[in-house]
Amino acid sequence: MKTQPAAGAAASPAPIIAPFGLKLSPMTFGWILAISAIFCFSLATPIARGLILEGAAPVGIIAVRMFIATVLHWATLTVTSPLLLRPKLRDMAIAIGTGLLNGLGMILYFWALVRLDASITVMLISISPILVLSMLALRGEPLTRRHVVRVGLALIGVYLLIGPGGNVDLIGVAMALLAVAMFSSQLVVVQWYLKDNDARSITFYTNLGMLITVAIGWSLQGLPWTPVSAGGWVAIVALAVLSTFLARWAMYTAVSYIGSGQMSMLNPVEILLAVIWSILFLHEHLALTTWLGGGLILFSALLAIKRINLARQRPRWRAWIRW
């Protein structure tokens, strides 16, 4: 989101000093961070699917991932902005509550990855903007004919993605869609009740809530854990550091330079990259109807993102609290 210079201020903002002494304009620096964040986010689903195919326990993976990411987030805020660790008690409670819900969604999403290919699962995630708009209608957002069209395109896309003959595991699809509904509910709650808070603070307490849910779920299952190889541990650390901690840091910093509208338009790029990684490294194959269904979902998501970005009263970071 650009900030207009005050009267008498310099017309050009000061350049950003990047590594190796490179001088970049704030907009260029923001785009580099945005693309880096999207790249890191796109690795999450294929890496998780690869670990599951190796026999790793899904909830155990999430527990270790969230523990590492939450500790890193806490340490970073302690060093850079300790006041962000002390929001209002009400806001902290809401953030942790949304994290509890989001944690359950993450468990469902990883269970869906046990039954579905990574490429199909990540395409289902892109229906989130449609669900967000639908939930916002409950609080007065206008429900237009265009929204009906967007929902229709998304539903047709899901039908084609599943397969007209029901070739895809329907239980896995149901888990993935329920997970998306929980992720979308979190976005709406954050927008309704936490829009005046710093995103870094809310994200930390949301992650903490997710860690609590996952820890409880893992304990109820008897703490199942399948030994992983050295490569498996590298993948788990990559999930925590690259796809959770660093990706979110790059994303929030990028939004301060280029705005949430530009950042959100990169969401389909993330989905496309995740599908490409799944095909290249997991050797997944997609039928023509699957590509068509995924394309319709992405198109409807683009239309929904455009509509969401028109609402200026929402916090600029609202659409980027991630699973």
How would you portray this structure in words?
With 323 residues, the protein is mainly α. The protein has one domain (34-320). The protein is 71% helix and 1% strand. The chain has 13 helices and two strands; from the N terminus they run ββααααααααααααα. It has helices spanning 26-42, 44-53, 58-80, 89-115, 118-125, 128-136, 145-162, 170-193, 199-220, 230-258, 260-264, 267-281, 288-308; strands spanning 16-17, 23-24. Strands 1-2 form a two-stranded antiparallel sheet. Strand 1 (16-17) and strand 2 (23-24) form a beta hairpin. The radius of gyration is 20 Å and the shape is globular.
Topology of this structure?
Elements: E1 16-17, E2 23-24, H1 26-42, H2 44-53, H3 58-80, H4 89-115, H5 118-125, H6 128-136, H7 145-162, H8 170-193, H9 199-220, H10 230-258, H11 260-264, H12 267-281, H13 288-308
Antiparallel strand pairs: 1-2
Helix pairs in contact: 1-10, 1-12, 2-5, 2-10, 3-9, 3-10, 4-8, 4-9, 5-12, 6-8, 6-13, 7-13
